[in-house]
Write a structure and sequence with these properties.
Elements lengths: L1 E6 L5 H9 L6 E8 L6 H8 L3 E3 L2 H6 L1 H9 L4 E4 L8 H6 L4 E5 L14 H9 L4 E8 L9 E8 L6 H27 L1
Parallel strand pairs: 1-2, 1-4, 2-3, 4-5
Antiparallel strand pairs: 5-6, 6-7
Helix pairs in contact: 1-2, 1-7, 6-7
The structure holds 5-O-phosphono-beta-D-ribofuranosylamine.
5-O-phosphono-beta-D-ribofuranosylamine binds next to helix 1, strand 5 and helix 7.
């Protein structure tokens, strides 16, 4: 069994979508949800899915020791960041080399980096007059949004789009592709 942990800071709709996708899979599944926000809606989703979820502080995250202990306790093999806002600390990167992936709601290398999350990304895409946006699934390294790209899918930016309408279109791509990409990565890592 390959065990996945998801890190999320907010709503967690991707976390729920991924957990549901693997629900009846006998080879892999989402075993743990971790967040840096105690009031993040992802905890409600975790409860509904009967997946344990915990909150940590930024200091605990940067230190890494306790978090790596929890990950080991739950026998986590692979980490997925889905709407997670902190930069992954070195102890966690070192504990899971090549086994941490993130999804970014735009076509990297454009519109990424520190402070580029949520609607800020979509607004930047609109302000730049892009005709396309999309999703980027990439490995995590010590820099924001700079790890090697695994997968991208694009969608049109429509006339009259605002950050909300564009976000909804990008979310559809995330729901469609992210679980499949994770599944094929897990097969590769076996
Ligand atoms: C997603 O668009 C993801 O790409 C970005 O943050 C958003 C999180 O949405 N990093 P949700 O919490 O999964 O609903």
């Amino acid at each position: 069994m390959t065990n996945i942990a998801i890190f999320a800071s907010g709503s967690g709709s991707n976390a729920e979508n991924i957990a549901t996708y693997f629900k009846d899979n006998s080879e892999c599944g989402v075993k743990l949800i971790l967040s840096n926000k105690i009031d993040a809606f992802v905890h409600e989703r975790a409860k509904k899915l009967c997946i344990p979820s915990f909150t940590f502080t930024k200091a605990e995250f940067d230190d890494g020791v306790e978090i790596v202990e929890i990950l080991r306790e739950y026998e986590i093999d692979f980490i997925v960041l889905a709407g997670f806002l902190l930069k992954v600390s070195k102890p966690i990167l070192d504990a899971y080399p090549g086994r941490i992936v993130n999804i970014h709601p735009a076509l990297l290398p454009k519109h990424g980096g520190k402070g580029m999350y949520g609607d800020r990304v979509h607004q930047a895409v609109l302000d730049a007059g892009e005709t396309e946006s999309g999703i980027t699934i990439h490995y995590i390294n010590e820099h924001y949004d700079e790890g090697s790209i695994i997968f991208q899918a694009s969608c049109n930016v429509e006339t009259g789009d605002n950050a909300e309408t564009l976000a909804a279109r990008v979310h559809e791509l995330e729901y469609l592709h992210f679980p499949h990409v994770i599944e094929s990565l897990l097969k590769e890592h076996k």
